[in-house]
Amino acid sequence: MEERSVLCIEAGKSNRLYLRDLWEYRELFGVLAWRDIIVRYKQTVVGVAWSVLRPLITMLVFTVVFGKIAQLPSDKGVPYTLMVFAGMLPWQYFSNTVLTGSEALIGNQGLISKVYFPRLIIPTTRILVSLAELLVSAVIFVPLFFIYGYLPSWQIVFVPFFILLATLFSLGCTYILSSLNVKFRDFRYVVPFMVQFGLYLSPVGFSSAAIPAKWQTLYALNPMVGIIDGVRWSLFDAPLSATAFWSAVIWSVVILLAGFWCFRRMENEFADYI
After folding, report:
1. Fewer CB atoms inside 10 A, N or C side of the chain?
2. Residue 198: which of 231, 215, 173 has the closest Cα?
3. What DSSP state is assigned to residue 10?
4. pLDDT value of position 6
């Protein structure tokens, strides 16, 4: 006879077995992630092309506003359009994850209140949706490099490392905000404002070189500065300060651990508030 695994929930052991449960429910993670990807583009006329159009249009707006009107400098002679697009991709990866992930638990109320599974799976699936969009959007680099006659640096092999940092930071923020959003529904209005505000504090439409020297250290405490500058360094050999790099590494890990702790502290109360 086929052996079946039995899930036994015992008092006092949930924290110790939680990571094991995450692995045991990996198939559910895959199903929910695929569902989120399908739902995101269901009944849309343009479909997956939105993953290309959104960063492309934003890139053009930022290029005109910051590059043409404000006349801000680019990095080491890199075409301004390429520099902006290299900053836009990791930022949209982060913002898409946080915006959709913070609402993930609220959008799955029925599932949470009926059956047991590690609730952490629900906001985590949003990272795969954002990653899929990132990969599709990155295709735009091919014609852009051809149009500007620009070849990426050999350091392009380090791009996955900075995407990993963006993943850790995005997940940490998502865990914190999604758990708080269950108890305090005001966060559904606060999160979009925070993300929009963060856009102008991060070097998406401009180079970090435009920041005055006296503010560089404080500015570099934003983890997205090191992540975005790291992607540009990988593609164009653009400047990357040690402070911004280590800030991105340290804060990404710290926020991820803090997010996991916060989520676990509040997880047992989700069903009560939902």
Report:
1. N
2. 173
3. -
4. 55
Q: How far apart are CA 243 and CA 173, in angstroms?
A: 21
Half-sphere exposure of 145 (CA within 13 A, CB side): 12
Using the structure block, give the residue that is written with the tokens 């699936």: 125
> What pLDDT does 271 receive?
63
Q: How many whole angstroms separate alpha carbon 258 and alpha carbon 114?
A: 27
d(CA 67, CA 154) in angstroms, rounded, equals 26
Torsion angle of alpha carbons 226, 230, 232, 237, nearest 10°? 120
Tell me which amino acid residue 218 is: L
43: left (phi over 0), alpha (psi -120 to 50) or beta: left
Q: Is residue 84 a contact partner of residue 113, using CB atoms and an 8 Å limit?
A: no
Task: Yes or no: say if 250 and 168 are a contact pair by the CB < 8 Å rule.
Answer: no
Enumerate long-range contacts of 163-166, CB under 8 Å, 24 or more apart. 163/90, 163/93, 163/134, 163/231, 165/223, 165/226, 165/227, 165/230, 165/248, 165/249, 165/252, 166/90, 166/93, 166/94, 166/224, 166/227, 166/252
Rounded Cα–Cα distance for residues 205 and 197 (Å): 13
Alpha helix positions (H), the chain: 14-24, 26-41, 50-62, 80-101, 109-114, 121-138, 141-148, 159-183, 187-201, 216-219, 223-236, 242-267, 270-273
Q: Which residue has the tokens 């913070």?
A: 102
| pLDDT at residue 248, rounded to an integer | 96
Q: Which of 195, 171, 198 is nearest to 256 (CA)?
A: 171
Rounded to whole angstroms, the Cα distance separating 81 from 251 reads 29
Q: Which portions of the chain are predicted below pLDDT 50?
A: 1-2, 11-12
